[in-house]
Amino acid sequence: MDKLQSRCARLLGLDDSWRVESVDLQIEDRRVEIHLSHVGSGVICPECGVACGLADHADERRWRHLDTMQFTAELVARLPRSRCAEHGVKSIEPPWAGKHSRFTLLFEAFAVEVLQACRTVKAAAALLGLSWDAVQTIMDRAVARGLKRREATPIKHIGIDEKSFGRGQDYITVLTDLDGSRGLDVAPERTQAAAESVLATLTVEQRQKVCAVAADMLPAYAQAVATQPPNWCTTSSMSPSISGRPSIGCEERKTSSFRPRTTTGSRAPSSSGCSTRQSFLPSSDVASPPSRILT
């Protein structure tokens, strides 16, 4: 392996099971192709992680990599396929890319940074030189990786709110961690089914730790929360947001008024002129309301 191929292997972070065969510079197409080959006879089954024999190599594939100077860089390789006694013949996942992805992990990480700096997916696609669908797929994959890494930590205060997006009356339902200032999940529409779907993403342990829910005043949200564990203190807020807890503007909304849980809730008049929070609680909690509420 010459010096250029050796350096490319180091830059790509390849181990001893992969080798850089050639680096092809195509001036007219403004592209650099890095051809890789798998060496060795042993592979790991992608399904069970058991070491097994090498079956063969799949057809040649390409992955978009970070640009080199002003040239587009692509990795070209034939992935080895394992022969597992339990799962049969399977293509292994390359160390430089995710399963079924046409982009390297480093390129996807760069694309996510571009997405964060742009207002729209279309603008990011123009900067990256990709189609809208390709950039959307990269974003979906990044979200899936983040959700897979996210730990089911206890959440005391959650928020459910509607958000409009796009043109016209298009809405989504947003579930947020008010203490952690982060979004937990979203669902299309602003219906009871949408609220129930985002609440279903919480684990049983997380639901047991919830102390209070700041929800939009839509009856659909109240009905969705009414089916949750009785330890939840549900209050209607003006606008719970990802940036922090809802802003409380009057003393009545600080102390709240506690009533038996209903499917729609009732709103008490406010002497200070701003809407009061509604609370949906079991009848047994009317005399002794929980001490932990959103303030």
Descriptive account of the structure:
- The structure is a single chain.
- Helix 2 packs across helix 3, helix 2 (105-117) packs across helix 4 (132-149) and helix 5 (192-199) crosses helix 7.
- Residues 238-295 have low confidence and may be disordered.
- The chain has eight helices and twelve strands.
- The strands form two sheets. Strands 1, 2, 3, 4, 5 and 6 form a six-stranded mixed beta sheet that branches.
- By secondary structure, it is of the alpha+beta class.
- It has helices at 3-12, 105-117, 121-128, 132-149, 192-199, 204-209, 219-226, 251-255; strands at residues 18-26, 31-38, 42-44, 51-68, 71-84, 88-91, 157-164, 171-177, 182-188, 212-215, 233-236, 279-280.
In a few lines, what is going on in this structure?
This protein is α+β, with helices and mostly antiparallel strands and 295 residues long. The chain is 26% helix and 30% strand. The longest helix is centred in the middle third of the chain and has 18 residues.
